[in-house]
User: Fold this.
Amino acid sequence: MTLSASSVGSITTIHQQFYKASLPPITLEHLDLAWLTEKSITDLVATLSSGARIGVAASYGKECILEALAFSTESRVLLLTMNGDSGSAKRQKQILRNELLCNISLEKHGFFMERLAAALHLDLGLFIRQAFDIVSSGDTRGSMAAYESVLGRARAGDSLNISAVETIFAEQPFILSRKTAFALRAWACYIAVQAFPDNPGAIDTSIKDSQAHPTYKSYMLFSDHSDQ
Assistant:
């Protein structure tokens, strides 16, 4: 198999675009899931200055198949892309599960986390624990107003760049040329939840319900009913 540089991995520096204030740069590590190592996750977690909350973003392709996944701290983002080798990458999936997804010492925060939980299980056979959905009180779930409200409250002293929020959170398929924008979604989730009070409503898909019908569960998670 011929590997491109992007398949093996790359590390670049990006800058946040949500606030008009000047903030420190962000290190972006991008690699295919099939090339994930424990070091990539260790490097990410080592940048947590305090607390145990990580921002998460996901992108879906045709038939709602998970195609990209990003985890973020204040200064580092780990972006994983999926390809034909992802499903059979047993060791790499085990690393992702043990070190991040099911590591109960780390809280995973993002928008529409129940959708990600379903995709992880259906597409990769993985569970997630200590996952929390970011909700903006009073705003329609998934609306630009909700994203702007959450980010504006997170750094109330900084002026919010509304156009950047609308561009970055616009629903688009993941493409390599927009990986910076996608990574910044995860960074935004990290920033958004640092001042949030503890949330008791954790998602834990490792708890199996033998009475639940998987087709029905998938429909509920991926249909418009999940916004109600």
